[in-house]
Specification:
By secondary structure, the chain is α+β, with helices and mostly antiparallel strands. It has one helix at about 5-25; strands at about 60-70, 70-80, 85-90.
């Protein structure tokens, strides 16, 4: 195999390693600094006015409680941290 083909294979291999690293880095749960415990060991409030909280991905779920025909009946639930309890939601409107 000529040298230029080995260089091409090496570049493709390197690009795949970089792409896999970027994908893996995007999957890391980033801890918000304001989620640390408050002085005295009290947990922080789940939502502080003026500090919007964005919940996405694996922190959104639907808890199925029943089925009516071909439709599921249940409640939307969210987690404010990757390992916290599931909390029911309520509409703001």
């Amino acid at each position: 195999m000529p040298l230029y083909r080995w260089i091409g294979v090496g570049l493709i291999w390197l690009a795949s390693i970089v792409a896999a690293g970027a994908w893996a880095h995007a999957q890391v749960i980033v801890q918000r600094p304001d989620i640390e415990k408050l002085p005295g060991g009290a947990p922080p409030p789940l939502f502080a006015p003026g500090q919007p909280l964005l919940i996405s991905g694996g922190n959104i779920g639907f808890r199925v409680t029943d089925m009516s025909g071909d439709k599921l009946i249940g409640t939307w639930v969210v987690r404010t941290s990757g390992t916290g309890p599931w909390l029911e939601t309520a509409s703001s409107r």
